[in-house]
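New to this. Please check this fold:
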Amino acid sequence: GAESAGPGEGAETSGSSTIIRDSQSRTDYSQIGPGIGLDQDAGSQNQETAGTEFTAMTVSDPVVKPVEKYSYEQMKTDIEALKARYGTAHMTVNTIGTSADGREIYDIVIGNVNAGKHVLIQGALLMMKQIEDALAFYDTGSYNGRKLSDLLSQVAVHFVSMSNPDGVALSQFGLDAIQSAELRERIQNCYASDTAAGRTSLDFDTYLTRWKANARGVDLNYNFDALWN
């Protein structure tokens, strides 16, 4: 569906991306978000974390920054910037398909591509920030007493950071974001059909901001084949 991050998504402190780790349990407090400052005693935020020690790790001048509309074009720019900053030793970028409107779909792999265990994650802005965090602290970070590099040597984590780029573009920038005249007509037909059936009373532009499907009008969440061969 439409993937756009609101202005409050993620944790940002003085222009830096912040991770907070619980060093005594398995809980991961990554991207805690606004309202919890690093100058406070993190252990006193609630009873569950009382008495717990935290280690804060900060990415200086991060590549990936929170914005109201995290576009497909910005994602592509950030992927190239991440490769330029962190290299490709721990990051593999694959193109795994093309959307109906011609946008490439990326699979960013962090960890050991030859590992026996593979994990698939899909998302948008938060995921891109997690990718940068993993790259920034790959060789120096630790989790629950284990080196991050050791953990990632045993797994390949596949981040498909925007599996529906056409739907994202449509919801963010309207019909003009779709290049294909055939697809634009199909989207207009979807609106006409939903209006006639009483499924929406919105004007067309507002209707598009709530778009959940791909450019063909197919909701991928309801049509996602989970039984991969």
Q: What stands out?
A: The longest helix spans residues 181-196.
